[in-house]
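Query structure, 172 tokens:
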């Protein structure tokens, strides 16, 4: 199998609501992978707005949030949409969420994470920060992969392994 080559690689992060996890992932990869990747996000049942806590967190870290929006995944199946090289789901199967399945030929992976938008009250901010940390860790590993040197089977295994990556414990 030949390696995957593109410049940049287009990555779609999918979730159900496209208001928190997939939005965070889009922002992180567009910063970490600038020049090598172009990230997008969408939802199978988008909420229609980005969660305010996601916007606050990203804004506090210097991200430009002006172009972030909650949108349906069918935008990426329409004529003129970018050709996708990777589609990564970030919804949490363990919580009983139904993750969208992307048809077609892009390489797919599942990096399930709990939904920080489901956490209410003061713990909500901590849930968003923890989700950001886990995504940042996984995306950092992904962005550093030598994609052009890996055959598709090896790359798929690496993507799946990243989804199993447990974040390093934080010092107390």
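Result returned for the query:
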């Amino acid at each position: 199998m030949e390696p995957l080559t593109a410049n940049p690689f287009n990555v779609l992060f999918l979730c159900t609501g496209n208001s928190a996890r997939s939005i965070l992932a889009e922002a992180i990869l567009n910063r970490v992978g600038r020049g090598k990747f172009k990230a997008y996000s969408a939802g199978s049942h988008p909420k229609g707005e980005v969660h305010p806590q996601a916007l606050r967190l990203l804004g506090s870290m210097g991200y430009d949030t002006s172009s972030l929006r909650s949108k349906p995944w069918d935008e990426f199946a329409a004529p003129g949409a970018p050709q996708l090289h990777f589609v990564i789901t970030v919804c949490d199967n363990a919580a009983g969420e139904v993750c969208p399945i992307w048809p077609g030929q892009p390489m797919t992976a599942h990096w399930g994470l709990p939904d920080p938008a489901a956490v209410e009250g003061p713990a909500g901010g901590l849930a968003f920060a923890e989700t950001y940390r886990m995504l940042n860790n996984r995306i950092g590993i992904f962005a550093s992969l030598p994609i052009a040197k890996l055959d598709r089977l090896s790359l798929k295994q690496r993507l799946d392994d990243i989804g199993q990556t447990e974040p390093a414990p934080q010092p107390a």
